[in-house]
């Protein structure tokens, strides 16, 4: 056995955790391919690659979140990861090559993030009015910064009138922003494919950190964010209302449908695991 590369069970455990990543409308726009010493992330090969625009943006954000989840999962299992993003200019569906290497005992922080993966939910319920402590918000900003993104608290701005970029009109606020909690904008320096993939990783880092801190969270999309940089994702974090029931997990495709050997032909079956 080659101890420099993880065995199949370890790779499957890491990808199984990565399946829990959030994605817009739960589209799960990813698939994974195992090479000898590498793991490859592709845009889901069962559907056409989305054209540049909102569809591609959501795909890259979701795949970025899955990439961060797999990095966290490997770290918690004792494997560091080298990641090459968008490795093949001739294949835009090929989003990352992950090369695990032995890293020894995981940090407490990585263990906590990995433990947060199965507990994280998109919680759309109005949060309690209790304030989110400043040091919690600072910790979320640090999590974003480690993934090259900036996190801004914009709660005050979005609870007031939200100006449209077009002069003379005002956008309607989505109901989720009327409730308690804090609204955060995750911003990147630009909005090319690489930046969107990294923004997905940063989104995952913020959501898992929020879960680890006991906060409920909900990513939001839409044109109502306003920020001088590129604002790919709006997030709401807050305390779940006292006495609220835990949310059930949303369904995911089976591991066998999204993880295959690198050379295998794509499968054409989508079955949701509703258990
Ligand atoms: C990029 C992105 C955008 C999203 N936008 C919204 C949104 O606008 N409104 C919403 O309620 N959920 C949104 N979500 C959450 C997804 O619907 C959710 O991740 C998916 O249904 C899976 O559920 P889970 O997060 O509880 O596992 C978004 C998620 C991502 C990654």
What would you note in describing this structure?
The chain is an alpha+beta fold and 275 residues long. It folds into two domains: 136 residues, NADH Oxidase; 105 residues, NADH Oxidase (3-Layer(aba) Sandwich), CATH 3.40.109. The chain contains seven helices and 13 strands. A five-stranded mixed sheet has the order 3-4-2-1-12. It has a four-stranded antiparallel sheet with strand order 5-8-10-9. A two-stranded antiparallel ribbon has the order 6-7. Strand 3 and strand 4 form a beta hairpin. Helix 2 crosses helix 3 and helix 4 runs antiparallel to helix 6. The chain is globular and about 55 Å long. The C terminus is likely disordered. The site of flavin mononucleotide (FMN) has 19 residues, from helix 2 and strand 9.
What does the secondary structure layout of this molecule look like, with pairings?
Blueprint: H1 8-18, E1 30-34, E2 39-43, H2 54-76, E3 79-85, E4 94-102, H3 108-116, H4 134-146, E5 150-153, H5 155-159, E6 162-163, E7 170-171, E8 182-188, H6 193-212, E9 216-220, E10 230-238, E11 252-253, H7 255-258, E12 259-261, E13 272-273
Parallel strand pairs: 1-12
Antiparallel strand pairs: 1-2, 2-4, 3-4, 5-8, 6-7, 8-10, 9-10, 11-13
Helix pairs in contact: 1-2, 2-3, 2-6, 3-6, 4-6
The structure holds flavin mononucleotide.
Can you tag this structure with a few keywords?
single chain, 275 residues, alpha+beta, NADH Oxidase, 2 domains, four-stranded antiparallel sheet, binds flavin mononucleotide
Distance between the termini: 35 Å
- Provide the structure class: alpha+beta
The biggest sheet, with number of strands, parallel, antiparallel or mixed sense and barrel status, is:
5 strands, mixed
Low-confidence stretches: 163-171, 223-228, 266-275
The whole-number mean of residue pLDDT values reads 88
The protein's oligomeric status is: single chain
Tell me, what's the shape? globular
Reading off the top of the CATH hierarchy, the class of the largest domain is best stated as Alpha Beta
Give the proportion of residues in helices: 25-40%
Number of strands: 13
Taken in chain order, the helices and strands follow as HEEHEEHHEHEEEHEEEHEE
Radius of gyration, in angstroms, nearest whole number: 19 Å
The total of helices stands at 7
From the coordinates shown, what is the CATH architecture of the largest domain?
Answer: 3-Layer(aba) Sandwich
Strand content: 15-25%
> How many domains?
2
Bound small molecules, which ones? flavin mononucleotide
Strands side by side in the biggest sheet: 3-4-2-1-12
CATH-assigned fold name of the largest domain: NADH Oxidase
